[in-house]
Amino acid sequence: MDRVLVLKSLIVFLSQLILIVSAQNGRCPPYSDCGVLGRIRFPFTTTEQQHCGILAIHGCQQLPPSSPKTIKLGTSTSTSYSVLRIESRTIFISDDEQERYLRNRNCKAFSKNVTLPHTSPLASFVNKYNITIFRCNHSLKPSLSKDFHKYSNCSEYDIFYGPPNILTPPGFQWPSSLASCSTIQLAVEGNSTDDPFQFVISTIGIEVQLSNECESCLDDEKERCLLDTEGKFYCATGI
Ligand SMILES: *[C@@H]1O[C@H](CO)[C@@H](O)[C@H](O)[C@H]1NC(C)=O
Ligand SMILES: *[C@@H]1O[C@H](CO)[C@@H](O)[C@H](O)[C@H]1NC(C)=O
Ligand SMILES: *[C@@H]1O[C@H](CO)[C@@H](O)[C@H](O)[C@H]1NC(C)=O
Ligand SMILES: *[C@@H]1O[C@H](CO)[C@@H](O)[C@H](O)[C@H]1NC(C)=O
Ligand SMILES: *[C@@H]1O[C@H](CO)[C@@H](O)[C@H](O)[C@H]1NC(C)=O
C-alpha cells in the first residue's frame, strides 16, 4: 500500500472510532449511517441513539444495508411505517394499509387522516403534499367552481375536492357549501383529477418543521436541540 492509501484508511478508521466512542458515551455523533438511507443527520437519528434526534429510525444498523428501515410516529405501541427515503428535513414513509385500499379502489382509503407525530417544543410535523377531501351526505348538492371534483362511488358519502393544498393560490377559501361535510387530509402526488385513486398515494412526505427556538439553536452553531429527561428544551453541542 502506498502512503496516501494508508493515511486514508487511518482517517476512515479514526472517524469510525470517534462515532463509536461518542455513541458509547451517550454523546451524539454528527451523523449516523443508516444502510440504504445513507447518512442521516439531525432531526433524524437511529433508535440506538434515540436521544440524539427528534425522529428515530429503526433497523439502521441491521445488515444487509438494504434491510427494512421503519419508524413509529406516535407512541411506542403505534404502527410502524417503512421509511423510503430522507430528503433534508422531509422523511418519506409508506402506509401499507392505505396502499392496499388504494390498489383495490376501496373507499376506506378516505376514512382517516394521515397520522403525524405530536407537536413538541422542538418541532411540528407537516404532511407536505396533501389534499383536503370533503366527505358529504349524498343528499348534498353543492354548487362548486370548476376547480372542484366530485366522486360519487363511495356508498357512505360523496366526496368533493379541489386542488392539492400546495397548489391552492394565496387567499384560497373553501366553499361554504361544503361546511356540513367532514374533512380529511391525505397524501397526494401531482394535481387532482376526477379519479381520486389516481392521485391519492400511500407515500407520505412528512416535513419536520423545527421550532423557532430550535432553529436559533442551530444558527448558533449548536448541533441540535433536545429535550432533557424532564422534557425541558436545551441546545446541545457536538462532541
Ligand atoms: C397540507 O399542506 C399544506 C401545504 O403544503 C400545509 O400548509 C399543511 O400544513 C398541510 N396539512 C397537514 C395536516 O400537514
Ligand atoms: C343525510 O341527508 C338526509 C336527507 O336530507 C338526512 O335524513 C340524513 O340525516 C343526513 N345524514 C347525515 C349523516 O347528515
Ligand atoms: C390543477 O388542476 C386544476 C383543474 O383541476 C387546474 O385549474 C389547475 O390549473 C391545475 N394546477 C396546476 C398547477 O397544474
Ligand atoms: C363506479 O362504480 C361502477 C360500478 O362499480 C364502475 O363501473 C365505475 O367505473 C366506477 N366509476 C369510477 C369513476 O370509479
Ligand atoms: C382530519 O384533520 C382535520 C384537520 O386537522 C380535522 O379538521 C378533521 O376533523 C380530521 N378528520 C378526522 C376524520 O379525524
Automatic annotation (TrEMBL):
Alphabetically ordered keywords of this record: Signal
Signal peptide: 1-23
Protein name: Wall-associated receptor kinase galacturonan-binding domain-containing protein
Top-level taxon of origin: Eukaryota
Source organism of this protein record: Vigna mungo (Black gram)
Presence of the UniProt keyword Signal in the record: yes
